[in-house]
Amino acid sequence: MSSSLRKVSLLIITIIVVPVLIFSVFEIGNYRQNEKVIQDIYKNQLDAILFSINQYSDDIISNLASRIENSTNNFKPDTGNDLSKTMNEMPAFLCIVQFNNKQEILSTIPGSFSNNSIIGEMVTYLTDSAKTIKQLQTFMESGYRKIEPIGNTTKNMQWIVFLTHLNEREITNILVIDPEKFISQVLDPKIQEIAKGKFDIAAYRSGEDLPFYTAMKKSTSRKITNREPFWLFTNYLMGIELKDITIADLTKERIKRNLIIIGLMDIILLSGAWIIYRNVKKQVELAQLKNDFVSNVSHEIRTPLALITMYIETLEMGRVKDAGKIKEYYTIILNETTRLSGIVNRILNFSQIEGNKRKYFLHETNLNKVVENAALTFRYSLETKGFVYSFEPYKNLPSVLADSEAVTDAFVNLVDNAMKYSPSIKEIAVRTGRDDGYVYIEVEDHGLGISEKDQKYIFDKFYRVTETNLANKVKGSGLGLAIVKHILDAHNGKINVKSVPGSGSLFRLSFPVKQNNQL
Ligand code: ADP
Hints:
Layout: H1 3-29, H2 31-73, H3 82-89, E1 93-99, E2 105-109, H4 116-128, H5 130-141, E3 148-149, E4 158-166, E5 169-177, H6 179-195, E6 199-205, E7 213-214, E8 227-229, E9 236-242, H7 247-316, H8 323-354, E10 363-365, H9 367-384, E11 388-392, E12 400-402, H10 404-420, E13 427-435, E14 438-445, H11 452-455, H12 469-473, H13 480-490, E15 494-500, E16 504-512
Helix pairs in contact: 1-7, 2-6, 2-7, 7-8, 8-13, 9-10, 10-13
The chain binds adenosine-5'-diphosphate.
Adenosine-5'-diphosphate (ADP) binds at residues 417-418, 420-421, 445, 447-450, 458, 463-465, 471, 476-482, 505.
């Protein structure tokens, strides 16, 4: 890895990957804690609603206490007053019994109430609960009337004790309520208003699972676990839950949603980091390839130029007299010039391709002819380098629509490579043929071969295989196969390679027989 790529990778890891991972691990680690915090928040909100219902019940009784105080101060026992009316209107209020501080009964409302056994129990209670009454007095002295439910009353009947004043004297009132009627008749409108279809609010007898009252009217199959006691009714509980979903489900759903969002965010950020890394890597590699290209090409140009200069200087000095030697020198100069113009042409071709300026002129072309004509240009070079060259033309090969000059360029490139990368077995076989709607030229050598991994990249511009020693020594620009591929693409053709490292390579250029698109 080059040092600039390493720096970029480190930067990406530091500013994207590490923070994302830390955040995710932290969030997932806090999953349980978050769940509990959210559950607590929801529970507190629900409890606040139950609190308001309790507060409302307390207000009703306080209000009643104030009215008792007002009416008893103008008490006229025989004329049914407001209070008796209220008691009649509220069937949940069974009776109020008033005592003086000697536990003597003063009055009952309604006046007709005369259940002696209950009254007897009340007197016993008052005698035994001097401490509670004392507390109520203390509250009263500080200006607050405390409403106190009495614990051990039976179901369906709740006693509530509070103090009032009658002409400066303290009166102890015991209110007897039917809790179930109170909840389902007096509290119901308030509960309905609070529930507003969003909450299940229900009332339970303690120890029972099923409610005797629900705000929804229809009995719910869900068990409400969040229950709180009624302040005023010692044997009753009320429960609350969100209507369609439990708090636990809601919390789970919320956490799940958050985890999904975190997961998606991670995927997006990490993919982004990966894409940035890939792009930078590509750019760095391309920059590296361009550097190599410049040094390779400079070398490729410098070598023939040096040879040409050397031989021309020798000839110019007139020291070589032997006609054979002079001809040999001229041949070398010609060969090196051809090589030089080949390199320059390749670079020009490539720059035309890069600028999308290369034009192709299509006409009926016979690939056998292309091979035969091109062979004339490289035959001499093949022979001097000791290559055995063979050509097997396919008989009656259909012609294709092609730019013969471009096809020649492509073919010569393949033969050039076959020569460059065949250090020991110097055999090059060229064949033409037909295959499934295509006609082809193939060039086979028994040279270095190309690994499967490199086969994927050899058609990329500037790409050169640099693993084996020889491939390193052989100079090239890395442009040849990129140009060949472009030519084939422009003809709607294909280029295939079969190669085994150490055994040789076979390149095939295929051109479609039938229609070629307009280029
Ligand atoms: P170059 O100028 O390097 O030859 P090319 O684009 O023509 O550029 O080829 C790319 C690479 O593919 C070469 O560097 C070489 O390693 C590999 N290659 C191409 N043809 C052959 C072949 N016939 N045998 C072995 N390797 C080859």
